Amino acid sequence: GAGKGAAVGAEVRVLLGSSDHEIVDLSGSTLEAAATNIQAAIKEKSIDALILVGGDGMAHLGVNACANTDIPMAIVPAGTGNDAAEVFGMPASNPAESIRLILDGLSTPKAIDALRVSHDGVSTWALGSASAGFDALVNARANKMRWPKGPNRYYVAMLLELASFKPIKYQSVIDGKPRDFEAMLCVVSNTGVFGGGMLVVPDASVTDAKLDILLVKKMSRLKFVTIFPRVYKGTHITDRDVEIVRGSKISISASGMPIYSDGEYVGQAPFEAQVVPGALRVIAPAI
Fold first, then answer.
1. Residue 256 region, left (φ>0) first, then alpha (ψ -120 to 50), else beta?
2. DSSP secondary structure code for residue 219 in this structure
3. Residue 134: phi, psi to the nearest 5?
4. pLDDT tens-digit series, residues 49-98
5. How many CB atoms lie within 10 A of CB 164?
6. Half-sphere exposure (CA, 13 Å, Cβ side) for 70?
7. DSSP secondary structure of 253-275
8. Taking the domain 118-277, which CATH number applies?
9. By three-state DSSP, how is residue 59 classified?
């Protein structure tokens, strides 16, 4: 979050320090260092819950540490994109209220579905989404941009990427049924939200043991530009060229496309995504 995470982190340390709980600081100078610290703490059973401070990149780190363990995770929003915190019901720009909600919910964590993403013999976990296509290309461009800040950066990156974009040919298998298609956008979603507040699948649930696959079919660039802003309100799903398919396991091949999971680069297509019901325990008042 452009330094915001460090400032909020310092505030969170003070807030937690005034509670009755023992605090273990697992932060690191890099995401990799923090991940190593977290994994060691879980292995040594030195923590009962993991509280992360940051955005969706930090949430992605937490999911990969806590999935398939008995350690619940919570997040205090402090990133450029805070989709995970929104899904959990954590208030923006209010660390004190977030900590109050987290401490109140420590004894009653909730089990939710997680997304298992596999490619080239490597498997990672995700909370929100996995994709290989236009949105992944936009993510790659946005991650390199210094301006503008916040969610608007994604929208500007989208416009820049669209200038040379052509519909992508996909080969997929959804719950054992092959399906080939051309699309502008193909997102495998668990939470229904990604990209800094885009409601790609407004009715998605993290407790239904299903994935929602959003397909924005082949269309002109002009039409795509008019549909895209509607994603922030979830009204895009009424367009005839937008389809949502549900399933529990999907494999996707798209030649030369990067794979992005929760906004983080994880490899190159093809990939397989599978929902794992109840794999993640979270402290989330909105669920």
1. left
2. -
3. -55, -45
4. 999 999 999 999 999 999 999 999 999 999 888 999 999 999 998 999 99
5. 8
6. 7
7. E-TTPEEEETTEEEEES-EEEEE
8. 2.60.200.40
9. helix
The Cα–Cα gap between 278 and 287 comes to 13
Which phi and psi angles does 44 have, rounded to 5°? -85, 0
Tokens 């399933």 -> residue:
247
Supply 249's token pair: 């396991």
Looking at the domain covering 4-113, what would its CATH class be? alpha beta
First-to-last C-alpha distance (Å) of the chain: 25
Q: Which position has the token pair 């490899």?
A: 267
Per domain, the residue ranges of the chain are 4-113, 118-277
Query: Distance (Å, rounded) from C-alpha 180 to C-alpha 169?
Result: 8
Beta carbons of 131 and 186 less than 8 angstroms apart: yes
Instruction: Report pLDDT digits (tens) over 177-190.
Output: 999 999 988 999 99
Backbone angles phi, psi at 159, to 5 degrees: -65, -40
CA 56 to chain centre: 6
**DSSP-derived pairing of the beta strands 73-77 and 50-54:** parallel
Peptide bond before 270: cis, by omega within 30 degrees of 0?
yes
Angle between helices 4-17 and 95-105 (to 10 degrees): 50
> Identity (one letter) of the amino acid at 110?
K
The residues near 184 (Cβ < 8 Å, ≥ 6 apart) are 133, 134, 165, 167, 168, 216, 217, 218, 219, 224
Global pTM value:
0.91
Q: How far apart are CA 224 and CA 195, in angstroms?
A: 16
